[in-house]
Amino acid sequence: MSDYLVIVESPAKAKTIERYLGKKYTVKASMGHVRDLPRSQMGVDVKDKYQPKYITIRGKGDVLKDLRKAAKKAKKIYLAADPDREGEAIAWHLAFALNVDETSPCRVVFNEITKDAIKESFKNPRAINLDLVDAQQARRVLDRLVGYNISPLLWKKVKRGLSAGRVQSVAVKMIIDRENEIKNFVPEEYWTIESTFLKDKEEFEGSFYGVDGKKVELKSEADVKDIQAQLKGNAFLIDKVNKRERKRNPALPFTTSSLQQDAARKINFRAKKTMMIAQQLYEGIDLGRKSGGITGLITYMRTDSTRISQNAIDEAKDYIKEEFGDEYVGANKKRTQQSGAQDAHEAIRPTSIKRHPDDLKSILTNDQLKLYKLIYNRFLASQMAPAVMDTMTVHLLNNGVEFRATGSKIKFPGFIKVYVEGSNKNQEKETFLPDLEKGMEVEAKKIIPNQHFTQPPPRYTEARLVGTMEKKGIGRPSTYAPTLDTIQRRGYVRIEDKRFFPTEIGEIVIDLLEEYFPEIIDVDFTVKMEEDLDFIEEGKIEWINVIDEFYQDFHKRLEKAEEEIVEVEVKDEPAGIECEKCGHEMVYKMGRFGKFLACSNFPDCRNTKPILKKIGVKCPKCKQGEIVERRSKKRRIFYGCDQFPTCDFVSWDKPIEKPCPSCGELLVEKTTKKKTEIKCTSCDYSEEKEVKTE
């Protein structure tokens, strides 16, 4: 019989912790929550101070039976769920189910699954923090009141299967607002003038700045011609040379949001995938007997804090000194924490800087290695010295017309030896300028005007949407990935070329919410609600008061909506083709994964087909069909002939229209995060072209 029973959330974590604690401890997994609100009803008694009605989750009976059996044999029970609000709530539910006194020192928390962190946490157990539990309970009750009241209304008035939620509705509204901005955008014309200058056979680039020392914007071709008319010959005099040293500090260690954003930019991971793999790295990877067995490789991955423990800082300093030299060690000045951050635990970092990604190549999966390397390098860089750049700006004059040329050279690489933030890839590139001094004369070899038009704001990618949500204070680290997943599963938005587009059904739902429940999609309301949840966690306000303040007005709006909303008929759009099975017209319908084709004679005829997106390329195999975009069962895009199954041509790479200039066969695009390579499917011909990065 073990003296102590420890309950964690996952079996992987249980194995790791049991090995660290020794024979006196039995560690079991609750497999997440054991109690929750019922799915079949709201489960919140609005007449009795919004008390939730918890039930044992279906399928968890055997888990609870096993835990109760183990609990009877143990002298002491420790609840070691994750160190956040939800983890605290899980511990509270377990305490109720196992008759553990919630005020006793039964709760242990740790930010990393390492031997030292685990043993230290068991030296300092505490009571369950009921303020944390109340904050999580308030979120759960609030979301249930919104979802289980508005969703049936949407089912009845619009379409079955719809739902509404606080954070997800705001996210959809943001995507729709951005789409409207793009539709209403009016491009404005502007011009630039670029020049290639020559100094002693050395070329360098410059661009028009202004006239007589003042910056001038070129809005038309007439403006450009005025400037060209003012120029006298091709000789430019160097009027001024400004040289300075510029320092750039490393990015802070990862939070949940910044990890999801950089994982999207650098390794092309969706938010859901990033969090799934981060969970694996946190809970533990088997490094083999000699390397310590199952070991947690990163600290907890749901955090909005950039704080780092002193032990981790000291370990990183020693490593940097040894690997790079003293001059590469950062000063570790106090960096400002983001406003509104809970700062409950540390930033995301490796549990030991000594576990270099290269040493784990044979142990981790390819995806695990990519994410671990990203986290490792970001943390290591955050503890390194700033990069130092020598920059030079040259002012060139011709009859009052000023051009400017800028150059930069890395004087000291500092942290960029290890890592550069995803959105700043080009900031540390060196730009050549020859040795130039005031009074020198150079020749303008080419002066080329270029017409441009302002571009609309970009559509949201997952990374950009998460970043905007965090900046506005919408949601918290644990909600970003589930929110993005939910709005796609519900069919409110779709993703094309990694960018969000709203669907018709999404626009209908948001229009209804905007008219009858404006607070649900109001950013300020959502931000205030998140702040109130934080205040509940800090013990400053009562959770019931927060819910009541919201519900009283919400309930009146709900009654009004029930009476006034006219049933919305989402008409099926004719597709202009006949059903090959019964001859009736096919129509476009909205499904879980977007639009699809269905027979209008439903339910008598249940024929459905995917909508095939043609890419303008003839099938190279049958020469009759056209290549169309398809999706695999895992939603991955591939390309095939529209004559399938008669023709079975398929390709993961996108075929292009022009034939190979070498052999005349099919060319395809192979895209990476840095470039698109066009390759022949028959010979060795290839060419490259740049891919636009976010």
From TrEMBL:
Q: Which domain of life is it from?
A: Bacteria
- What keywords are annotated for this sequence in UniProt? DNA-binding, Isomerase, Magnesium, Metal-binding, Topoisomerase, Zinc, Zinc-finger
Name of the top EC class for this enzyme: isomerase
GO MF term (any one): DNA binding
What residues correspond to the site Interaction with DNA? 33, 139-140, 143, 148, 155, 302, 490
* A Pfam cross-reference name: Toprim
An annotated GO cellular component: chromosome
Stretch list, region Interaction with DNA? 163-168
A GO term (biological process) for this protein? Answer: DNA topological change
Q: What HAMAP family would the database entry show?
A: Topoisom_1_prok (MF_00952)
The name this protein carries in UniProt is: DNA topoisomerase 1
